[in-house]
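Reminder to self: tokens first, then the designed residues, so the page reads top to bottom the way the pipeline ran.
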């Protein structure tokens, strides 16, 4: 009985102490700081766990300083709030920011940036594609921590506000944040000088992106706190809207290289009808007799060239970048989407050389990927929208050929994440197979059913057999964690699916191709354009791209991928081909 009375007295004393506004504010501030700090560490673990984040102990300490500073800056609003229950709302907003960045990083391999917000209104109808990148056990853990905070917080509300306390804690927090960032930058510079760490091994630039707008330090953001990224996004987005970018003129070395790459006639005319088919998210490992029997059969036919190790080179706008590489032979800009920033450029697109009208079959509205401007920029003067399954797309393609259209591009959509087209597949797969793997495979099996309609006609129709037909993927889509799950299952069950291969296939049919040549070495998307261009009778045209003609075993590379990317970036930014 006495023990109960003692415990009651202790509780009453603690509640009385909390009732003093000053003390309660500091308790709530401490709890909120601890919550946010824990969540930033949790975010780092889930976002960057596959990479070594810091080159040294000093860098690790700098990261902790900055994350603590970020947590304190936000938690300091405690001293300004009369009703501290608003902190719960603020915490949920922070949780949502963490989860949104995780989902975006799983998809695009970087954190949310100004370009992501710039592109958001341009992807109408693609919101459902994020479903595949939600990992409930991980993502809900952020909200679970907030729920725990709510339980502890329930008896610590107060009505007092303290401007002086808020000001002091904010100054201290900003000092911690700036100290951490300064130490981090110093540490990275020292490590670079000692060649201890390479810049492309630092998270956040895994696809060779670089900052374009403002004073953006992407690696600093990643290694200090994701909570600071709005500071960079705000300034970058403002500069983006104002179209203010650093000047990137072509160098003397660039012009010397272009004298080699850009030679020949300004005019040419396609001597063969052409069909380009971009299959959404196609990867080489699904091109098997079991999954895609029709496309696999075509790859084994006479007059067909097949390359199975095309490395993807998309950067900022996956589908749009893939379309640009195949149509123009150019590579994407190093940061941002070419289709959004340089839609008024003049491009050396192959369809500009067509003697007749060219049509683009799109699976979505022309606002997506800014096709309103980009399709004409690539030489397509007619656009047809379809919004049904891809089986109807290939029937529409067949109708266009019957109507006499000779220059056509069609883009599929049904195999985009989360691969809902799998419901049209009759392929029977084990129930224990990871659901992403199962849907991915069944989705491409369903796509192949529709594509088979076109392939059977190509094999039998004498008119269609005069066309050059290019079939490839626009990009890969599955992030490393999904691939790892799929690879574990494949290895365990002896399946030869190579889901970690990360390459695209290329199939080209042409009456000019003899036999069934193969290219089994590693090559790049930039090689697609010069390869099919060699079959179209435009050898004298000035631009053959950065790649090599894979049909010509004697051709040597004039420029390699790491050199081609920055050169292409400057060519596009300076609208080189308009001159």
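Designed residues (579 positions):
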């Amino acid at each position: 009985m006495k023990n109960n009375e003692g415990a009651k007295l202790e509780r009453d004393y603690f509640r009385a102490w909390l009732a003093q506004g000053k003390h309660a504010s500091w308790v709530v501030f401490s709890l909120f700081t601890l919550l946010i700090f824990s969540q930033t560490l949790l975010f780092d673990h889930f976002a960057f766990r596959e990479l070594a984040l810091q080159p040294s102990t000093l860098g690790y300490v700098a990261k902790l300083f900055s994350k603590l500073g970020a947590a304190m800056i936000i938690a300091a609003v405690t001293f300004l709030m009369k009703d501290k229950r608003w902190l719960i709302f603020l915490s949920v907003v922070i949780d949502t920011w963490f989860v949104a960045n995780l989902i975006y990083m799983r998809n695009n391999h970087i954190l949310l940036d100004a370009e992501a917000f710039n592109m958001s209104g341009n992807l109408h109808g693609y919101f459902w594609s994020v479903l595949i990148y939600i990992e409930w056990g991980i993502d809900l853990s952020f909200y679970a921590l907030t729920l725990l905070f709510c339980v502890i917080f329930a008896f610590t509300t107060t009505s007092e506000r303290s401007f002086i306390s808020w000001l002091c804690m904010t100054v201290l927090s900003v000092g911690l944040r700036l100290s951490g960032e300064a130490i981090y930058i110093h540490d990275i510079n020292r490590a670079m000088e000692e060649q201890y760490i390479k810049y492309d091994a630092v998270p956040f630039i895994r696809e060779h992106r670089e900052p374009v707008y403002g004073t953006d330090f992407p690696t600093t953001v990643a290694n200090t706190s994701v909570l600071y990224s709005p500071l960079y996004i705000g300034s970058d987005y403002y500069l983006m809207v104002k179209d203010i970018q650093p000047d990137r003129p072509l160098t003397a070395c660039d012009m010397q290289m272009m004298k080699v790459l850009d030679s020949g006639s300004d005019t040419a005319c396609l001597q063969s009808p052409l069909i380009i088919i971009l299959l959404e998210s196609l990867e080489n490992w699904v091109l098997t007799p079991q999954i895609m029997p029709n496309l696999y059969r075509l790859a084994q036919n006479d007059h067909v060239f097949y390359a199975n190790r095309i490395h993807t080179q998309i950067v900022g706008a996956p589908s749009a970048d893939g379309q640009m590489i195949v149509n123009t032979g150019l590579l994407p800009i190093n940061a941002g989407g070419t289709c959004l920033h340089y839609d008024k450029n003049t491009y050396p697109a192959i369809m500009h050389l067509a003697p007749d009208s060219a049509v683009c079959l799109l699976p979505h509205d022309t606002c997506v990927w800014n096709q309103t401007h980009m399709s004409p920029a690539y030489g397509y003067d007619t656009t047809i929208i379809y919004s049904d399954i891809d089986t109807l797309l290939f029937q529409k393609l067949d109708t266009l050929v019957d109507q006499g259209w000779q220059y056509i591009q069609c883009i599929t959509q049904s195999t985009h994440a989360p691969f809902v087209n799998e419901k049209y597949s009759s392929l029977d797969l084990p129930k224990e197979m990871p659901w992403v793997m199962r849907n991915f495979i069944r989705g491409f099996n369903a796509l192949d059913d529709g594509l088979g309609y076109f392939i059977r006609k190509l094999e039998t129709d004498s008119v269609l057999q005069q066309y050059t037909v290019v079939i490839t993927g626009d990009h890969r889509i599955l992030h490393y964690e999904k691939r790892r799950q799929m690879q574990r299952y494949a290895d365990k069950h002896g399946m030869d699916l190579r889901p970690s291969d990360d390459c695209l296939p290329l199939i080209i049919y042409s009456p000019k191709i003899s036999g069934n040549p193969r290219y089994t070495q590693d090559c790049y998307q930039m090689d697609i354009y010069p390869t099919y261009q060699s079959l179209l009778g435009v050898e004298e045209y000035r631009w053959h791209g950065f790649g090599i003609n894979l049909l010509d075993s004697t051709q040597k590379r004039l420029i390699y991928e790491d050199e081609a990317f920055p050169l292409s970036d400057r060519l596009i930014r300076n609208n080189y081909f308009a001159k």
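Residues 137 and 278 are 35 Å apart (CA to CA).
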